[in-house]
Amino acid sequence: MNLAIALWLSQDAVTNGAIYGLIALALVVVFTVTRVIFVPQGEFISYAALSLATLQAGKVPGTIYVLIGGGILVAALDGVAALRKKSLKSLPGSLLANIVLPLAIAATSWWSASRPDDLLLQVVVTLAIVTPLGPMLYRLAFQPVANASVLVLLIIAVAVHYVLTGFGLAFFGGEGVRTHMFPNLQFRVGIFNISGQSIGVIVTSLALMVLLALLFGRTTYGKALRATAINRVGARLVGISYEFSGRLSFALAALIGAVSGILVSPITTIYYDTGLMISLKGFIGAIIGGMTSYPIAVIGSLAVSFLESYSSFWASAFKDSIVFSLIIPVLLWRSLTTHRVEEEDDS
Questions:
Q1: pTM here?
Q2: Looking at the 3D structure of the chain, how many domains does it have?
Protein backbone atom coordinates (compact mmCIF):
# COMPACT_ATOMS: atom_id res chain seq x y z
CA MET A 1 0.00 0.00 0.00
CA ASN A 2 1.33 3.42 -0.96
CA LEU A 3 0.24 6.89 0.14
CA ALA A 4 -2.16 7.39 -2.76
CA ILE A 5 -4.03 4.18 -1.95
CA ALA A 6 -4.13 5.05 1.75
CA LEU A 7 -5.61 8.47 0.98
CA TRP A 8 -8.21 6.97 -1.34
CA LEU A 9 -9.20 4.41 1.30
CA SER A 10 -9.40 7.18 3.90
CA GLN A 11 -11.66 9.26 1.68
CA ASP A 12 -13.93 6.26 1.18
CA ALA A 13 -13.92 5.62 4.93
CA VAL A 14 -14.88 9.19 5.82
CA THR A 15 -17.68 9.19 3.24
CA ASN A 16 -19.11 5.89 4.47
CA GLY A 17 -18.54 6.91 8.07
CA ALA A 18 -20.73 9.98 7.58
CA ILE A 19 -23.60 7.72 6.50
CA TYR A 20 -22.99 5.19 9.29
CA GLY A 21 -22.85 8.06 11.78
CA LEU A 22 -26.28 9.31 10.71
CA ILE A 23 -27.75 5.82 11.03
CA ALA A 24 -26.17 5.40 14.47
CA LEU A 25 -27.73 8.68 15.60
CA ALA A 26 -31.16 7.53 14.41
CA LEU A 27 -30.84 4.21 16.22
CA VAL A 28 -29.76 5.92 19.45
CA VAL A 29 -32.66 8.41 19.27
CA VAL A 30 -35.23 5.66 18.81
CA PHE A 31 -33.75 3.38 21.48
CA THR A 32 -33.34 6.01 24.18
CA VAL A 33 -36.90 7.30 23.72
CA THR A 34 -38.83 4.07 23.03
CA ARG A 35 -36.44 1.21 24.00
CA VAL A 36 -36.87 -0.20 20.47
CA ILE A 37 -33.79 -1.63 18.77
CA PHE A 38 -34.96 -0.38 15.40
CA VAL A 39 -34.03 -3.13 12.95
CA PRO A 40 -36.15 -1.65 10.09
CA GLN A 41 -34.02 1.52 9.98
CA GLY A 42 -32.35 0.22 6.83
CA GLU A 43 -35.66 0.03 4.98
CA PHE A 44 -35.93 3.82 5.04
CA ILE A 45 -32.57 3.92 3.25
CA SER A 46 -33.65 1.44 0.58
CA TYR A 47 -37.08 3.00 0.14
CA ALA A 48 -35.63 6.49 -0.31
CA ALA A 49 -32.97 5.40 -2.81
CA LEU A 50 -35.35 3.23 -4.82
CA SER A 51 -38.11 5.86 -4.77
CA LEU A 52 -35.72 8.53 -6.03
CA ALA A 53 -34.46 6.25 -8.80
CA THR A 54 -38.04 5.45 -9.80
CA LEU A 55 -38.93 9.14 -9.99
CA GLN A 56 -35.84 9.79 -12.08
CA ALA A 57 -37.05 7.06 -14.44
CA GLY A 58 -40.35 8.93 -14.86
CA LYS A 59 -42.44 6.49 -12.81
CA VAL A 60 -44.39 6.67 -9.56
CA PRO A 61 -42.65 4.73 -6.74
CA GLY A 62 -44.47 1.90 -5.02
CA THR A 63 -43.77 3.44 -1.63
CA ILE A 64 -46.76 5.70 -2.32
CA TYR A 65 -49.02 2.67 -1.81
CA VAL A 66 -47.25 1.82 1.45
CA LEU A 67 -47.77 5.41 2.60
CA ILE A 68 -51.46 5.52 1.68
CA GLY A 69 -52.16 2.06 3.10
CA GLY A 70 -50.34 2.84 6.33
CA GLY A 71 -52.23 6.11 6.65
CA ILE A 72 -55.59 4.36 6.26
CA LEU A 73 -54.69 1.83 8.98
CA VAL A 74 -53.49 4.55 11.35
CA ALA A 75 -56.64 6.60 10.79
CA ALA A 76 -58.75 3.50 11.47
CA LEU A 77 -56.91 2.80 14.73
CA ASP A 78 -57.23 6.41 15.83
CA GLY A 79 -60.94 6.31 14.99
CA VAL A 80 -61.51 3.18 17.07
CA ALA A 81 -59.56 4.67 19.98
CA ALA A 82 -61.57 7.91 19.76
CA LEU A 83 -64.87 6.01 19.80
CA ARG A 84 -63.81 4.01 22.85
CA LYS A 85 -62.87 7.20 24.69
CA LYS A 86 -66.04 8.91 23.37
CA SER A 87 -63.91 11.84 22.28
CA LEU A 88 -63.96 12.72 18.58
CA LYS A 89 -61.97 15.95 18.83
CA SER A 90 -58.76 14.29 17.58
CA LEU A 91 -60.34 12.65 14.52
CA PRO A 92 -60.09 15.64 12.11
CA GLY A 93 -56.38 16.00 12.81
CA SER A 94 -55.82 12.27 12.34
CA LEU A 95 -57.72 12.25 9.04
CA LEU A 96 -55.77 15.25 7.82
CA ALA A 97 -52.38 13.77 8.75
CA ASN A 98 -53.04 10.17 7.70
CA ILE A 99 -55.45 10.43 4.75
CA VAL A 100 -55.34 13.88 3.19
CA LEU A 101 -51.57 14.40 3.49
CA PRO A 102 -50.59 11.02 1.95
CA LEU A 103 -53.02 11.62 -0.92
CA ALA A 104 -51.50 15.07 -1.49
CA ILE A 105 -48.00 13.53 -1.47
CA ALA A 106 -49.20 10.89 -3.95
CA ALA A 107 -50.53 13.58 -6.28
CA THR A 108 -47.24 15.46 -6.02
CA SER A 109 -45.30 12.28 -6.82
CA TRP A 110 -47.38 11.77 -9.97
CA TRP A 111 -46.52 15.29 -11.02
CA SER A 112 -42.85 14.80 -10.13
CA ALA A 113 -42.70 11.63 -12.25
CA SER A 114 -43.60 13.74 -15.26
CA ARG A 115 -40.56 15.97 -14.57
CA PRO A 116 -37.64 13.48 -14.49
CA ASP A 117 -35.03 16.23 -14.83
CA ASP A 118 -36.16 18.26 -11.79
CA LEU A 119 -33.71 16.86 -9.22
CA LEU A 120 -34.66 19.14 -6.34
CA LEU A 121 -38.36 18.33 -6.68
CA GLN A 122 -37.58 14.60 -6.75
CA VAL A 123 -35.52 14.84 -3.56
CA VAL A 124 -38.26 16.79 -1.75
CA VAL A 125 -40.95 14.34 -2.86
CA THR A 126 -38.81 11.38 -1.79
CA LEU A 127 -38.35 12.88 1.68
CA ALA A 128 -42.11 13.58 1.85
CA ILE A 129 -42.90 9.96 0.95
CA VAL A 130 -40.49 8.22 3.32
CA THR A 131 -40.50 10.45 6.42
CA PRO A 132 -44.18 9.92 7.40
CA LEU A 133 -43.63 6.16 7.34
CA GLY A 134 -41.72 6.47 10.62
CA PRO A 135 -44.55 7.70 12.86
CA MET A 136 -46.99 5.41 11.03
CA LEU A 137 -44.84 2.40 11.89
CA TYR A 138 -44.69 3.49 15.51
CA ARG A 139 -48.46 3.90 15.70
CA LEU A 140 -49.19 0.56 14.06
CA ALA A 141 -46.51 -1.72 15.49
CA PHE A 142 -45.00 -0.26 18.64
CA GLN A 143 -47.36 2.17 20.36
CA PRO A 144 -49.91 -0.54 21.26
CA VAL A 145 -47.16 -2.48 23.12
CA ALA A 146 -45.06 0.45 24.29
CA ASN A 147 -44.70 -1.00 27.81
CA ALA A 148 -43.49 -4.41 26.62
CA SER A 149 -39.97 -5.64 27.34
CA VAL A 150 -37.03 -4.79 25.12
CA LEU A 151 -36.98 -8.38 23.85
CA VAL A 152 -40.63 -8.26 22.76
CA LEU A 153 -40.06 -4.91 21.05
CA LEU A 154 -37.02 -6.37 19.27
CA ILE A 155 -39.06 -9.32 17.98
CA ILE A 156 -41.69 -6.91 16.66
CA ALA A 157 -38.97 -4.81 15.03
CA VAL A 158 -37.61 -7.88 13.24
CA ALA A 159 -41.13 -8.75 12.04
CA VAL A 160 -41.64 -5.20 10.75
CA HIS A 161 -38.30 -5.43 8.94
CA TYR A 162 -39.39 -8.56 7.06
CA VAL A 163 -42.75 -7.03 6.16
CA LEU A 164 -41.12 -3.87 4.77
CA THR A 165 -38.50 -5.91 2.93
CA GLY A 166 -41.29 -7.91 1.31
CA PHE A 167 -43.01 -4.70 0.22
CA GLY A 168 -39.71 -3.48 -1.21
CA LEU A 169 -39.29 -6.62 -3.28
CA ALA A 170 -42.90 -6.51 -4.46
CA PHE A 171 -42.86 -2.84 -5.49
CA PHE A 172 -39.29 -2.45 -6.79
CA GLY A 173 -38.17 -5.93 -7.81
CA GLY A 174 -34.81 -7.54 -7.25
CA GLU A 175 -32.72 -5.34 -9.55
CA GLY A 176 -30.34 -2.76 -8.13
CA VAL A 177 -30.37 0.93 -9.05
CA ARG A 178 -28.21 4.02 -8.80
CA THR A 179 -29.33 7.62 -8.93
CA HIS A 180 -27.78 10.74 -10.44
CA MET A 181 -27.28 13.31 -7.72
CA PHE A 182 -24.20 15.45 -7.46
CA PRO A 183 -22.25 16.84 -10.41
CA ASN A 184 -19.42 14.59 -11.47
CA LEU A 185 -16.73 16.95 -10.16
CA GLN A 186 -13.18 16.02 -9.25
CA PHE A 187 -10.84 18.10 -7.08
CA ARG A 188 -7.14 17.29 -7.01
CA VAL A 189 -5.06 18.24 -3.97
CA GLY A 190 -1.56 16.96 -4.58
CA ILE A 191 -1.96 13.24 -5.18
CA PHE A 192 -5.35 13.25 -3.48
CA ASN A 193 -8.46 13.14 -5.71
CA ILE A 194 -11.68 14.26 -4.02
CA SER A 195 -14.99 13.59 -5.73
CA GLY A 196 -17.87 16.03 -5.64
CA GLN A 197 -20.19 13.28 -4.44
CA SER A 198 -17.98 12.58 -1.41
CA ILE A 199 -17.94 16.27 -0.51
CA GLY A 200 -21.72 16.43 -0.87
CA VAL A 201 -22.22 13.41 1.41
CA ILE A 202 -19.86 14.70 4.10
CA VAL A 203 -21.17 18.28 4.08
CA THR A 204 -24.81 17.19 4.12
CA SER A 205 -24.20 14.69 6.92
CA LEU A 206 -22.36 17.26 9.04
CA ALA A 207 -25.13 19.81 8.46
CA LEU A 208 -27.79 17.31 9.54
CA MET A 209 -25.80 16.39 12.66
CA VAL A 210 -25.54 20.07 13.58
CA LEU A 211 -29.29 20.51 13.06
CA LEU A 212 -29.96 17.52 15.31
CA ALA A 213 -27.70 18.98 17.98
CA LEU A 214 -29.59 22.27 17.79
CA LEU A 215 -32.90 20.41 17.92
CA PHE A 216 -31.99 18.56 21.10
CA GLY A 217 -30.28 21.50 22.73
CA ARG A 218 -32.37 24.52 21.77
CA THR A 219 -35.95 23.48 20.97
CA THR A 220 -38.89 22.44 23.14
CA TYR A 221 -39.47 19.30 21.09
CA GLY A 222 -35.85 18.25 21.42
CA LYS A 223 -35.88 18.81 25.17
CA ALA A 224 -39.08 16.75 25.38
CA LEU A 225 -37.32 13.88 23.62
CA ARG A 226 -34.35 14.18 25.98
CA ALA A 227 -36.65 14.19 29.00
CA THR A 228 -38.47 11.08 27.77
CA ALA A 229 -35.15 9.35 27.11
CA ILE A 230 -33.88 10.12 30.63
CA ASN A 231 -37.06 9.28 32.56
CA ARG A 232 -40.26 8.27 30.80
CA VAL A 233 -42.39 8.35 33.95
CA GLY A 234 -41.07 11.73 35.02
CA ALA A 235 -41.60 13.16 31.55
CA ARG A 236 -45.19 11.95 31.56
CA LEU A 237 -45.79 13.49 34.98
CA VAL A 238 -44.79 16.94 33.71
CA GLY A 239 -47.12 16.69 30.72
CA ILE A 240 -44.88 15.28 27.98
CA SER A 241 -46.84 12.77 25.90
CA TYR A 242 -44.97 9.50 25.58
CA GLU A 243 -46.91 8.70 22.39
CA PHE A 244 -45.90 12.03 20.86
CA SER A 245 -42.24 11.48 21.79
CA GLY A 246 -42.33 8.03 20.22
CA ARG A 247 -43.81 9.30 16.98
CA LEU A 248 -41.35 12.19 16.84
CA SER A 249 -38.36 9.90 17.39
CA PHE A 250 -39.55 7.58 14.62
CA ALA A 251 -40.13 10.55 12.33
CA LEU A 252 -36.54 11.68 12.92
CA ALA A 253 -35.30 8.14 12.26
CA ALA A 254 -37.26 8.01 8.99
CA LEU A 255 -35.97 11.44 7.94
CA ILE A 256 -32.37 10.46 8.70
CA GLY A 257 -32.83 7.17 6.84
CA ALA A 258 -34.33 8.96 3.84
CA VAL A 259 -31.48 11.48 3.71
CA SER A 260 -28.94 8.66 4.04
CA GLY A 261 -30.57 6.75 1.20
CA ILE A 262 -30.54 9.79 -1.05
CA LEU A 263 -26.88 10.46 -0.23
CA VAL A 264 -25.65 6.91 -0.71
CA SER A 265 -27.66 6.05 -3.84
CA PRO A 266 -25.25 7.72 -6.33
CA ILE A 267 -22.27 6.00 -4.71
CA THR A 268 -23.38 2.38 -4.53
CA THR A 269 -25.97 0.15 -6.13
CA ILE A 270 -29.05 -0.13 -3.92
CA TYR A 271 -31.29 -3.20 -3.82
CA TYR A 272 -34.53 -3.70 -1.92
CA ASP A 273 -32.60 -5.27 0.99
CA THR A 274 -29.37 -3.23 0.90
CA GLY A 275 -30.46 -0.99 3.75
CA LEU A 276 -30.12 -3.76 6.32
CA MET A 277 -26.38 -4.13 5.76
CA ILE A 278 -25.84 -0.35 5.97
CA SER A 279 -27.93 -0.05 9.14
CA LEU A 280 -26.10 -2.96 10.79
CA LYS A 281 -22.81 -1.09 10.42
CA GLY A 282 -24.42 2.00 11.90
CA PHE A 283 -25.73 -0.25 14.68
CA ILE A 284 -22.18 -1.26 15.57
CA GLY A 285 -21.33 2.43 15.95
CA ALA A 286 -24.39 2.87 18.17
CA ILE A 287 -23.32 -0.12 20.28
CA ILE A 288 -19.87 1.43 20.73
CA GLY A 289 -21.71 4.47 22.07
CA GLY A 290 -23.67 2.28 24.46
CA MET A 291 -26.90 3.09 22.58
CA THR A 292 -26.98 6.31 24.63
CA SER A 293 -24.08 8.58 23.62
CA TYR A 294 -24.49 10.48 20.35
CA PRO A 295 -20.86 11.71 19.98
CA ILE A 296 -19.37 8.31 20.80
CA ALA A 297 -21.80 6.65 18.39
CA VAL A 298 -20.56 8.91 15.58
CA ILE A 299 -16.92 8.28 16.50
CA GLY A 300 -17.62 4.55 16.65
CA SER A 301 -19.22 4.70 13.21
CA LEU A 302 -16.09 6.35 11.81
CA ALA A 303 -14.00 3.58 13.38
CA VAL A 304 -16.24 1.00 11.72
CA SER A 305 -15.91 2.69 8.33
CA PHE A 306 -12.10 2.90 8.55
CA LEU A 307 -11.91 -0.75 9.57
CA GLU A 308 -14.18 -1.68 6.66
CA SER A 309 -12.25 0.42 4.15
CA TYR A 310 -8.81 -0.94 5.02
CA SER A 311 -10.15 -4.49 5.40
CA SER A 312 -11.47 -4.27 1.83
CA PHE A 313 -7.89 -3.68 0.69
CA TRP A 314 -6.12 -6.31 2.77
CA ALA A 315 -8.86 -8.98 2.93
CA SER A 316 -11.79 -7.98 0.74
CA ALA A 317 -13.48 -11.39 0.97
CA PHE A 318 -13.67 -11.11 4.76
CA LYS A 319 -14.30 -7.39 5.23
CA ASP A 320 -17.87 -7.78 6.52
CA SER A 321 -16.82 -10.54 8.90
CA ILE A 322 -14.01 -8.36 10.22
CA VAL A 323 -16.33 -5.39 10.68
CA PHE A 324 -19.05 -7.34 12.47
CA SER A 325 -16.51 -9.08 14.69
CA LEU A 326 -15.75 -5.63 16.14
CA ILE A 327 -18.98 -5.89 18.14
CA ILE A 328 -17.68 -8.87 20.16
CA PRO A 329 -14.94 -7.09 22.19
CA VAL A 330 -17.21 -4.04 22.59
CA LEU A 331 -20.04 -6.12 24.06
CA LEU A 332 -17.61 -8.10 26.20
CA TRP A 333 -16.09 -4.92 27.61
CA ARG A 334 -19.50 -3.39 28.30
CA SER A 335 -20.77 -6.54 29.98
CA LEU A 336 -17.79 -6.48 32.35
CA THR A 337 -17.92 -2.76 33.15
CA THR A 338 -21.66 -1.97 33.19
CA HIS A 339 -23.96 -2.77 36.07
CA ARG A 340 -27.30 -4.25 35.13
CA VAL A 341 -30.21 -1.83 35.57
CA GLU A 342 -33.79 -3.03 35.82
CA GLU A 343 -36.17 -1.63 33.21
CA GLU A 344 -38.59 1.05 34.29
CA ASP A 345 -42.06 -0.06 35.22
CA ASP A 346 -44.52 2.24 33.48
CA SER A 347 -47.59 0.48 34.76
A1: 0.89
A2: 1
